[in-house]
Design brief:
The protein contains 18 helices and twelve strands. With 489 residues, the chain is of the alpha+beta class. A four-stranded antiparallel β-sheet has the order 9-5-11-10, sandwiched between helices. Strands 2-1-12 form a three-stranded antiparallel β-sheet. Strands 6-8-7 form a three-stranded antiparallel β-sheet. Strand 1 and strand 2 form a beta hairpin.
C-alpha cells in the first residue's frame, strides 16, 4: 500500500494547529482573563478593524503559522520566541488588512478557477499528481475551510504580487508581476559599484584627549565648576510662581512647605534640593542666561526672585556658601571630562587636528606608517568600497575593520573627501565619529561580479511599504502594552 506524503487538509490543519497549541498556548492559558471584564485582548486596530487573539481570527492563524515555523526549525519556544511569534503575527495581520483594503477599492474578485488551481497541491499523492481519491476522502467542511482560506489569502496577495512580484511566477529571471527596475537604473548602479577605493588610515581617538589638557581648560574656566548648595521651587505658570513668591515674602509659608505644596520638583529631589549643582548645570536650566548671577550671588538663606527656567518658573534659596572646585579631586576631574565631552567637543577636535596636521607633514616627507609611529597615530587600512552613502546593500559596503572609525558610511564629509582624492594623495584631517583621521588613497578596484540582482529592488519597495503601513495613522498599535499585560507571567 502506498504511503501518501500529503495529508488531507482537514487532518493537516488539525495536526499543525494542535501541535502548536500544546506547546505554545499553555504558556499563555488563562492570562487573557487579566483584561478587565475577561474580554479577549485587542492588540490594535487597522482602520477600525480590531486585531484580536481569538480562535479563527487572522491574528491567531498567523500566530499558529509562525509557531509551526519555529518548531519546524527546532527553535526553543521560550518567552523571547513567544514574543517574536506574536509580534510577527501582529505585523502580518496588519499588512494583510492593509493590502486587502487596497484590493477592495479595485473591485477585484478572486476567480473560482484560480482558487481551484491553488487547492490542487493539497490533494496530491507522493508523486505530486492530483489524487481524486484524496479529494473525495476529505470532508466537505475541510474543503470549504481550505477554499475560504486560500481565497482570503489570494485576495490580499493580489496587491502584494502586483506591486512586489511573485516568486512563483518568473519569466526570463524576472518576476512576472510587480514593479520593475529599469535597465538604465541597473546599469547606473553597476557603474557605481565599479569605482571601489582602498585607503590607508591614520586615526587619532578623541577619547585619548589628555587629562592635563582638560584641566588646563578647567582652570581657565574655573567658575563653571563652582558648586552651589541650593533649594528650588519650580511651577508651570508665572501666576502660581507670583503667588508662591508673595506668600514667602509675607512669611505666610516656609520655603520647605512651599516645596511640598507647590513645586513640581523638575530640578530637585523630593525635599527641593537642587540636584545638578555646578554652575554650568545651573546655567543650562535657565531660559535667560543673564539670570545666572541672580542665583550665584545669593547669600546664605537668601531667596531669589522669580526666574524663568526651561520647564516653567523657579524660585531658588541658598542653603550654604559656594564651593570652589578642587581639580586634584578625581570627582571633579570626571565632572570636567564629562563637561568637555558634552559641551566643548570642538576643543578636542582642534587638539587632534593639530596632531593630524603634524602627521600629514611627516607622511608627505617620508613614510605613512613611520609618520604614525612618530606622531602617535593608529595606522590601519580600509578594504576597497564604492561611494555608497548609508551602506545600501545593492552596492559594496564600507567596513571599518580594525580602524575604529564609526558611521563613516553615513558621513557625507568623509565620503566626499575620500572620493575626491587622487591615487596616493593624502587627505586633510577629517572628523569621523570619535576620531580625527587622515586618509591615503592606495588602490582602486572593480569587483569581478558587478551585476546588480534585480530582486533587491523589490525588497526595498516591500520594506518601504511595510514601514509606511506600520506607521500609518490608520493603525492603532497597542501590541507591546497588551502583550506584556496579558501574556507574561
Amino acid at each position: 500500500m502506498k504511503k501518501n506524503t500529503v495529508y488531507t487538509l482537514g487532518s493537516l490543519i488539525i495536526l499543525l494547529i494542535c501541535a502548536f497549541c500544546f506547546v505554545v498556548l499553555p504558556a499563555f492559558e488563562g492570562r487573557a482573563s487579566r483584561q478587565q471584564g475577561g474580554d479577549t485582548p485587542v492588540f490594535g486596530k487597522y482602520n477600525g478593524k480590531e486585531i484580536k487573539y481569538e480562535q479563527g481570527s487572522d491574528f491567531a492563524e498567523y500566530v499558529s503559522q509562525y509557531g509551526q515555523m519555529y518548531q519546524m526549525y527546532g527553535q526553543q519556544l521560550d518567552q523571547s520566541a513567544y514574543y517574536q511569534i506574536f509580534s510577527q503575527a501582529f505585523n502580518a495581520t496588519v499588512m494583510k488588512y492593509a493590502y486587502a483594503e487596497a484590493v477592495d477599492k479595485s473591485g477585484y474578485e478572486v476567480p473560482a478557477s484560480a482558487v481551484t488551481r491553488e487547492m490542487i497541491p493539497y490533494f496530491s499523492d507522493e508523486n505530486g499528481n492530483y489524487s481524486s481519491k484524496l479529494y473525495k476522502a476529505a470532508s466537505e467542511e475541510a474543503k470549504l475551510e481550505l477554499k475560504n482560506a486560500l481565497s482570503s489569502r489570494m485576495y490580499a496577495n493580489r496587491f502584494y504580487n502586483d506591486n512586489f512580484g511573485s516568486t512563483s511566477e518568473v519569466f526570463n529571471h524576472d518576476a512576472l508581476y510587480g514593479l520593475k527596475s529599469s535597465s538604465a537604473e541597473q546599469a547606473f548602479l553597476s557603474e557605481a559599484n565599479k569605482n571601489m577605493r582602498g585607503f590607508d588610515v591614520a586615526s587619532f581617538a578623541m577619547s585619548d584627549y589628555p587629562l592635563d589638557e582638560k584641566l588646563k581648560f578647567a582652570r581657565q574656566n574655573e567658575a563653571k565648576f563652582n558648586s552651589y548648595d541650593l533649594y528650588v521651587i519650580t511651577v508651570e505658570d508665572k501666576s502660581t510662581a507670583e503667588t508662591v513668591a508673595k506668600r514667602l515674602e509675607n512669611n505666610e509659608i516656609t520655603f520647605e512647605d512651599a516645596v511640598t505644596e507647590y513645586s513640581e520638583k523638575n530640578y530637585s529631589n523630593s525635599e527641593g534640593k537642587l540636584t545638578n549643582t555646578y554652575q554650568y548645570q545651573i546655567e543650562n536650566i535657565l531660559e535667560n542666561k543673564e539670570d545666572l548671577a541672580s542665583i550665584t550671588d545669593l547669600a546664605k538663606d537668601a531667596v531669589s526672585g522669580i526666574i524663568q527656567t526651561n520647564t516653567g518658573f523657579s524660585i531658588f534659596k541658598c542653603a550654604n556658601d559656594m564651593t570652589k572646585p578642587d581639580f586634584d579631586s578625581e570627582t571633579i576631574q570626571r565632572v570636567v571630562s564629562s563637561y568637555i565631552s558634552n559641551y566643548e567637543a570642538s576643543i578636542i577636535e582642534d587638539y587632534f587636528t593639530v596632531k593630524a596636521n603634524d602627521f600629514i607633514k611627516e607622511a608627505k616627507a617620508g613614510d605613512f606608517a613611520a609618520a604614525g609611529n612618530k606622531t602617535g597615530a593608529k595606522i590601519s587600512s580600509l578594504d576597497p568600497f564604492p561611494l555608497n552613502y548609508g551602506n545600501v546593500d545593492v552596492l559594496g559596503q564600507f567596513k571599518a575593520g580594525d580602524s575604529g572609525i564609526t558611521n563613516a558610511e553615513s558621513n557625507e564629509n568623509f565620503l566626499s573627501k575620500a572620493f575626491a582624492l587622487s591615487l596616493n594623495e593624502i587627505s586633510e584631517p577629517i572628523v569621523v565619529g570619535d576620531n580625527v583621521v587622515v586618509l591615503k588613497f592606495t588602490s582602486e578596484t572593480t569587483p569581478e561580479d558587478d551585476e546588480i540582482n534585480p530582486t533587491l529592488f523589490s525588497s526595498y519597495d516591500e520594506d518601504a511599504a511595510n514601514e509606511a503601513i506600520m506607521g500609518s495613522d490608520k493603525l492603532t498599535n497597542d501590541f507591546i502594552s497588551v502583550y506584556f499585560q496579558n501574556f507574561l507571567r
